[in-house]
Design goal:
By secondary structure, the chain is mainly alpha-helical. About 60% of the residues lie in helices and about 0% in strands. The protein has two domains: about 100 residues, no CATH class; about 90 residues, no CATH class. The longest helix is centred in the middle third of the chain and has 21 residues.
């Protein structure tokens, strides 16, 4: 019978998170070098949830040791590893290589150096609310739905919980504080789902600073009561 959500997370939850990091990325890990996707996963997980790395190593290695048959996969009794462009036997060997890299990272404290996100997954993992904001309100349909960029921002603020708005403000300031050059910001905003240009004459960084100031404004009905 198919796995329950609790059983899935217990047996494969962190393995699933790791596999998401490989979406759109080659599974080209070798014994001497982790892939871009694995490096991004390690960098972000060391920073946010380092205690899960040992669990991930265990889940990856156990899956590689006991790969499920096709029937049990079809019945939903096992987690199906997404297609990473490798043969069936190649997937098993690749998983052992990945598990070895994770174990080495944990046992030796080999942590990837901080850097800008390098993959689509890492951008979304680092800036989840900004991705929700840009992908939901600044797609290519934005000019047909709103009169201006500010109108789209106001619509987001009216729809989102204030805690999420505060989280967006923090992510905007974090992105701006990283000091990325304008071309890197353009690429990052595209990864996060923005499909329209900032309103002229604002540069991407100037528009982000404008949005950060706008979403940080107090909203009537929130905050401490008056005297």
């Amino acid at each position: 019978m198919p796995m329950s959500p609790l059983e899935h997370d217990h047996r494969y939850g962190e393995l699933d998170q790791l596999m998401r990091a490989y979406a759109g990325q080659p599974a080209d890990d070798t014994a001497d070098r982790p892939s871009l996707a694995l490096t991004a996963y390690l960098r972000h997980t060391w920073h946010t949830r380092p205690w899960t790395l040992a669990l991930c190593e265990s889940q990856v290695r156990e899956y590689a040791r006991n790969p499920p048959g096709r029937l049990r996969l079809r019945l939903g009794e096992f987690y199906p590893v997404p297609d990473v462009g490798l043969t069936e036997s190649g997937v098993q060997n690749w998983l052992f290589v990945v598990a070895d890299h994770i174990r080495h990272s944990v046992e030796d404290g080999d942590v990837p150096r901080p850097s800008a996100p390098s993959t689509h997954w890492e951008w979304h993992a680092c800036f989840p609310e900004l991705a929700q904001f840009l992908g939901g309100w600044f797609s290519q349909d934005m000019p047909d739905e709103f009169d201006s960029h500010d109108a789209a921002v106001d619509d987001y603020m009216a729809a989102a919980d204030r805690n999420l708005v505060a989280r967006l403000a923090g992510e905007l300031h974090e992105l701006l504080a990283s000091g990325r050059e304008e071309p890197d910001l353009v690429a990052g905003l595209a990864e996060l789902g923005m499909e329209v240009d900032p309103p002229p004459p604002l540069t991407p960084s100037a528009w982000l600073a404008h949005v950060a100031a706008r979403v940080a404004r107090p909203v009537p009905g929130y905050g401490p009561p008056g005297p």
